[in-house]
Amino acid sequence: AALLGSPDPLLDPDRRLISAPAPDRMAALTGTVRALQEAGIEAEDIAVRRPTLDEVFLSLTGRPGTGRPTGEQAVRGTEAAA
After folding, report:
1. Which of 5, 46, 48, 49 is the most buried (most CB within 10 A)?
2. Can you spell out the DSSP letters for the chain?
3. What residue ranges do the domains of the chain occupy?
């Protein structure tokens, strides 16, 4: 966890996947690769990706979005359907 720069990496044993937020993506990537090599662990795949909009929303609000328009957006959608 400390290696990835995140206290709570997400583990998915079925997919053999570890995922963690890394604000300094390049440092996390190079540090992770180096540590894996030093430990003699061969990674099947390693990648850096940007968070999805859903992930950003969840990290900012602490709750998932509803996926439904609200307020002015909902009114515009109703007018367009009429």
Report:
1. 5
2. -TTTT-SS-EEETTTTEEE---SSHHHHHHHHHHHHHHHTPPPS-----PPPHHHHHHHHHSS---SS--HHHHHHHHHHH-
3. 10-81
